[in-house]
Predict the 3D structure of the following.
Amino acid sequence: MDHNHEGLLAPEVKVEMKTMETFEAFKAANDERLAEIERRQQADVLLEEKVDRLNRELDLMTTRAGRPALGGVARREEIASIEHKAAFESYARTGQVDAIRLVESKALNGAVAPDGGYLLPPGAEAAILARMAALSPIRSIATVRPLANSALKKAVYPSGANAGWASQSAPSNTVGSNQYAELAFPTMELFAQPAATQAMLDDAAVDVESWIADEIVYSFAEAESAAFVTGDGVNAPKGLLAYPTVDDASYAWGSLGTVSTGASGAFPASNPSDVLVDFTHTLRSAYRQHATFVMNRKTQSAIRKFKDANGNYLWAPPATFGAKATLMNFPVVEAEDMPDIAANSLSIAFGDFRRGYLVVDRVGIRALRDPYSAKPYVLFYTTKRVGGGVQDFDAIKLLKFGV
């Protein structure tokens, strides 16, 4: 840019330009340092000092109190994201930790021990969670909450939010603490360990961040999908089928209500569709408006043959691309971890899962580079913390294939 016109720029634009110039100088000097280390096993002292000086300048530019805004909050976040991406890529390719440590220290993540790995850039984390929402059946219909801490504790009132009209009923502050229940949703560590060749990491055309995301997303989604259905709550989320059950006629808070088909391991031989009609109407109307069926593909295949009294099929294929199949006009979500139809199996769930089931995600997905355990491959031990469990026992019902 013509220096004669530089004075016309806004102060924040000048600061932004200077920051980017310094960052480019830092990258060039650091690349030169890495090349020297590769050639000579060590870098020139003056070059090390230059990199450290530029590093300190960048730190001051981005953290100094009262600095001019770099194009607003969105622009600052964009620059931070670019820095994080570059620092993580350097760490993944070479194992150099200085830049990624600096990024995490500025983001107040410096207290996390280095042996826990380093955070994937926010863009990669968001992409992984978005893809998992599409791949993980229960996550796609449940409430999902991000956490900064390792667990969520929630106070609940079994009959609802204790609402009423102040002039006609007792105010809420007269409710005793013993009438509330506390639910805990701890997060557990989920891991995957993709392996890369050094040749792949040296290839500048390979986006290492995207490669890690592609490698782990299916493993993560498969593992948590099983846990959200059958997990025992020990070092894993507590699954839907791990809770106590009770016949819906004797329903009590803390258990999931069940409706029996009346035949062991099967639907009744005559009018089997009547069971489904009765089953859906055990759910209160407030929940039924947003209810979804959950079952595996074998169970869905059996139900697909059912007709109503007028000869109409109860199951219908998706009406549009990306939509879900429906059963009696309620969406059907296919979850392979739901049990096959068998004696006393709980093979179909029906309810408002947004209100009924809670998934908690601890913010941050970490990757630890390990070039030693599986030579000549480089492993990336990647972890995220996730938990889950039922938060409203009245919102979900189970169909029991028994008498």
About this structure: Residues 2-6, 65-71, 110-114 have pLDDT under 50 and may be disordered. Residues 11-40 form the longest helix (30 residues). The chain has two domains: 8-119, 120-403. The first strand starts at residue 118 and ends at 119.
